[in-house]
Amino acid sequence: MDELLLNALENLSEENLKKFKFKLLYTNYEEKGTISKHQLDKAAHVTDLVQLLIEFYSEDAVDATLYFFDKICVRDSAARLRKAIEKDYRVKYKEHIKKQYQLIKERNSRLGENVNLSKRYTKLTIISKLRCKKEREHEIMASGWRHAKIMTERTRSSVTMNSLFDPDENGQTPQIVVLQGAAGIGKTMTAKKIMLDWASGEVYENRFAYIFYINCREINYGSKQGTVIDLITKNCPDKNVPIEEILLNQEKLLFIIDGFDELRFSFDRKEDSLCTDPRKEMPMKDTLSSLFRKKLLPKSYLMITTRPTALEKLQQCMECSRYAEILGFSEDDRKEYFHKFFGNNIDATRAFDIVKQNEMHFTMCFVPIVCWITCTVMKQQLEAGKDFAQNSKTLTAVYVLFLYSLLEPHSNSPNQNMQDNLKKLCSLAADGIWNQKILFGEEEIKEYSLDEFYSLPLFLNESVFKRDIDCVSVYSFIHLSFQEFFAALFYVLEEDKQMKYSVTPNRDAKLLLENYGKSGNYLMLTVRFLFGLLNEETMKDIKKKIGLKISPKIKPDLLKWVKTKQKKLSFSSSHDELIYKLEEFHCLYEIQEESFMKNALDHFTEIDISNYSLTQMDQMVISFFVKNCPTLKSLWLSGCRFGVEIKNGELAPPPAKRLCLQEQAEPNNSPVYLLCQALKDPNCKLKKLK
Question: How many whole angstroms separate alpha carbon 295 and alpha carbon 279?
Answer without folding.
Answer: 13
